[in-house]
Specification:
The complex is a heterodimer of chains A (about 375) and B (about 325). Chain A has 17 helices and no strands. Chain A has about 375 residues and is mainly alpha-helical. The two termini of chain A are about 35 Å apart. Chain B is globular. The chains are: A mainly alpha (about 375), B mainly alpha (about 325). At the A-B interface, helix 1, helix 5, helix 6, helix 13 and helix 15 of A face helix 3, helix 4, helix 11 and helix 13 of B. Chain A: InterPro entries: ABC_transp_permease.
């Protein structure tokens, strides 16, 4: 009989295995860097320096991480229910509409601390509604949520392009973007937070939505592991049959989970729009929805892991931009490769190293538990 | 310009635009009929297009480019197979990974090797698949309607176009009239039965994945060396996903796949044609709506308004021999 995969100890499952997967992914990425004719070690040093070497570097790293925490949580919540939401990109893009309505409509009238909660609700709501149709199709018609969310990404992109070159475009400009929001549509920066640890942030767009992302991560943890709904979601993810037998409504759980997932993606729009650019631009999501997949897989769908993985990817984004100055052959597209490799090794090939690791750990455990030979010989007689 | 010429031109570009969709769609058909979902059509096509562009630049031969495209695409297909067949990983996750790896690598390598912002140098005609004239164009050209249709619409495409359309009956024949095809379909519906009959499920699925890689490579080569003259960053632009949509639309059947791809190609051709041309009664249709239409149609289909699309039963599920 072929062995089902035995359970690894928690520290190996949540710490060692992701680390091994990450190292392998970076090793392969290093080969690509070599192929391009640059030194992978120099590139890594440049990257870390660019990401953490200055106050602005840290500010940018955390700014990008904010996006990835939201999209990572979006993918993770769906994962817990056994759903794969590839639509984070589209949900975040459409979520920008919610932010736009609040920012354009109330930005000149109300202060930021009133528009911010309104924008959170609006962006989350729009994102959730965008996830509703795929969720409903999955729950009622059984059509695969992966396919429908991919389609919805494209439809979202078409709608946003249509609106940004049409209705939403600021008058008197050629660029496909809205006008700049009023003061009330702009979130305060977090320079003071970095100032507390002695860093000086000048131009980085890190803003208060980073704190919102951390709160969202905590709330997702509470939801998944401390509420009845979270229990139902996880049951559905583990075994839909068991969930049905326990009287959990499949339709209800799928729809609610996808809407929470979509809302989290939608809220991502707050960070670049209200926090940094203060207007809606074409393609402001810039692939963050897809990075969320890698982040969720690496973070093992646990909010704490997701925050760490998001910061790592934030580092890659910021550091990658810095590398491009010194190594013209390496652009930010390098991150796309690393992202793909992380998804491959931490996601699709997650079982590759597991049996080997398990065998090694079991051997180590056996050696430890065995008494020394002399004692063993004595004990045998 | 009279209506007939316009219609002819739109249909002509329909054919040209639907060929990459058709090749990718048939590629997905082999894979998904064997029970391996493939989101990675896009990535394999993109990598194939880059390989074709790069190899054709260095060698000056479109056929070397085609070979390189097929090899790279099969290699990526085998990665997908390794993850989803051998290691029973999540097929969708694996496909997504391949898309990202292809998207990033093509740009990075393209920039490093050719220094043109991620594109490969423009190919001379000698290194491309050029339009070929079918026999009899001259003699038929005198006949009013048929002559124009024959010379404009049917003749004058590259060899890959004819290959793509010939692959439709070929795929039908393979799928429904050969032993391999029967087993391929069986392994997508009920792998345990195939296993019981003493046929290796992994090997069968690996062969399906290789077929898929091969066709994606041809699709990529078509983009870079027949339709275009060289590789351009993000050349596939979602065609892999449209092909996937067409596959669902066609309910995983080869001939229907051809019509679905022609339909989506037609929508694309119309969208290009209608830019700036308002329609009577409706007014100007936004380009974005036309571009989104394939996806919207697929959603409508999935919602069950136009029949029901039922995927192969064992699709997306890794086969565990015994437990």
């Amino acid at each position: 009989m072929s062995q089902p995969f035995a359970k690894l100890p928690a520290w190996a499952d949540y710490g060692l295995l992701p680390l091994i997967n990450l190292i392998v992914a970076f090793f392969v990425a290093g080969l690509v860097v070599l192929l391009v004719g640059e030194s992978p070690i120099d590139a890594a040093v440049l990257m870390v320096k660019g990401a953490f070497g200055s106050g602005d570097g840290v500010g940018y790293t955390l700014y990008y991480a904010t996006n990835f925490i939201f999209t990572g949580l979006c993918v993770a919540v769906a994962f817990h229910c056994g759903l794969f939401n590839i639509g984070g990109e589209g949900q975040a893009y459409i979520g920008g509409l919610g932010v736009a309505v609040v920012g354009l409509g109330l930005g000149n009238v109300l202060p930021w601390w009133i528009t911010f909660p309104l924008a959170i609700i609006a962006s989350g709501l729009v994102g959730a509604l965008w996830a509703l149709i795929p969720a409903w199709l999955q729950a009622k018609r059984g059509s695969h949520v992966v396919i429908t969310t991919i389609m919805f990404n494209f439809i979202a992109a078409s709608i946003m392009v249509y609106l940004l070159v049409g209705y939403l475009k600021a008058s008197g400009t050629q660029a496909p973007e809205t006008r700049v929001f009023g003061d009330g549509g702009q979130l305060p920066g977090l320079g003071w937070l970095l100032g507390l640890i002695g860093l000086n942030m000048r131009s980085a767009p890190l803003n208060i939505s980073f704190l919102l992302a951390l709160v969202a991560a905590f709330l997702v943890w509470v939801l998944i592991w401390r509420t009845k709904l979270g229990y139902e979601i996880r049951t559905m993810g583990y075994s839909p049959k068991a969930a049905r037998y326990a009287g959990i409504s499949e339709v209800r759980i799928i729809v609610i989970t996808m809407m929470i997932s979509g809302a989290l993606a939608g809220m991502m729009a707050l960070n670049p729009i209200m926090g940094a650019q203060h207007r809606v631009q074409l393609d402001f999501v810039a692939g963050a929805g897809f990075v969320g997949i890698a982040v969720a897989l690496m973070g093992r769908s646990h909010p704490a892991g997701i925050v760490l993985a998001a910061i790592l990817f934030g580092m890659l984004y910021q550091g990658g931009a810095e590398i491009a100055f010194d190594m013209p052959n390496i652009s930010r597209d390098m991150i796309v490769i690393i992202q793909g490799l992380v998804i491959l090794f931490a996601g699709a090939l997650e079982h590759m190293f597991r049996p080997t690791l398990l065998r090694i750990l079991q051997r180590v455990a056996r050696v430890k538990s065995q008494p020394t030979p002399a004692v063993a010989a004595e004990g045998g007689q | 310009m009279d209506t007939f010429t316009v219609v002819l031109q739109v249909l002509d570009s329909t054919i040209r635009l639907s060929v990459p969709l058709l090749l990718a769609c048939l590629a997905g058909l082999y894979s998904e009929r064997a029970g391996i979902f493939d989101i990675g059509l896009e990535g394999k096509m993109l990598a194939g297009a880059f390989a074709a562009g790069a190899a054709a630049t260095y060698s000056g031969s479109a056929y070397v480019g085609l070979l390189a495209a097929v090899l790279i695409s099969i290699a990526l297909g085998l990665v997908h197979g390794f993850a989803s067949i051998t290691h029973r990983g999540n097929q969708i996750v694996s496909g997504v990974a391949i898309n990202f790896i292809a998207a990033g690598t093509t740009v990075i390598l393209g920039q490093a090797w050719f220094q043109q912002g991620g594109r490969t140098p423009s190919l001379p005609n000698a290194a491309r698949f050029n339009p070929i004239d079918l026999p009899g164009v001259e003699t038929l050209s005198g006949i009013p309607v048929i002559g124009a249709i024959y010379s404009e619409l049917i003749s004058g495409h590259s060899v890959l176009v004819y290959l793509a359309f010939l692959l439709v009956p070929f795929t039908w024949w393979v799928l429904y009239r050969t032993r391999f095809g029967l087993r391929l379909r069986a392994v997508g519906e009920n792998p345990a039965a195939v296993d019981t009959a003493g046929i290796s499920v992994p090997w069968l699925r690996y062969r399906a994945v290789i077929c898929c890689g091969l066709l994606c490579g041809v699709a990529g080569a078509y983009l870079a060396t027949a339709q275009g003259a060289g590789f351009v960053k993000d050349m596939t632009a979602g065609k892999g996903y449209i092909a996937l949509a067409a596959l669902i639309f066609a309910k995983w059947r080869p001939v229907h796949a051809m019509f679905a791809c022609l339909l989506f190609g037609f929508l694309d051709a119309i969208a290009i044609r209608m830019q700036g041309h308002p329609l009577p009664l409706i007014g100007e249709v936004p380009v974005q709506l036309m571009q989104a239409l394939p996806y919207i149609l697929t959603i409508v289909l999935l919602a069950g308004f136009i029949g029901k699309a039922i995927p192969p039963k064992a699709g997306g599920v890794a086969y565990v021999k015994e437990r």
